[in-house]
Design a protein that fits this description.
By secondary structure, the protein is an alpha+beta fold. It has two domains: 31 residues; 79 residues, Alpha-Beta Plaits. Helix content is 46%, strand content 26%. Strands 1, 2, 3, 4 and 5 form a five-stranded antiparallel β-sheet that branches. The longest helix is centred in the N-terminal third of the chain and has 29 residues. The radius of gyration is 22 Å and the shape is globular.
């Protein structure tokens, strides 16, 4: 009889944990996962080949998560802005443009797209 009680308690604990984890996933989606991605070309004031540093610097200035995409030269780089709305991406582009000490130019490289589910 003790064994049945323990197995029931374990099953209840596992079910509770699964429910809690599912709830966290729903909360994360509702909390504002990126729904829009905008590809931007940036021209660096100081040329660089360090993709990690370029992505991190863009994240700091844009105020949204940024993923490094590609280089066309040591000066020109493509980055992806991950936003919760088109307006947030527009504002992020403006913040990058305002960082004139870092970026000589900031140009849109394609349309804003709604992320796939």
């Amino acid at each position: 009889m003790t064994w049945s009680w323990r197995s029931g308690a374990v099953a209840l604990a596992l079910a509770s944990t699964a429910t809690l984890l599912a709830g966290c996933a729903v909360a994360a989606n509702a909390a504002g996962e990126p729904a829009f991605t905008t590809r931007v070309m940036v021209k660096l004031v100081r040329p660089s080949e360090d993709a990690i540093a370029i992505g991190a610097e863009a994240t700091r200035h844009a105020g949204v998560p940024v993923t490094y995409a590609a280089a066309t030269s040591t000066s020109w780089h493509a980055v992806l802005l991950h936003c919760t709305s088109a307006a947030q991406c527009d504002a992020a582009v403006e913040r990058l443009r305002a960082a004139a000490a870092i970026y000589q130019a900031v140009e849109l490289d394609g349309k804003k797209t709604h992320a796939s589910p």
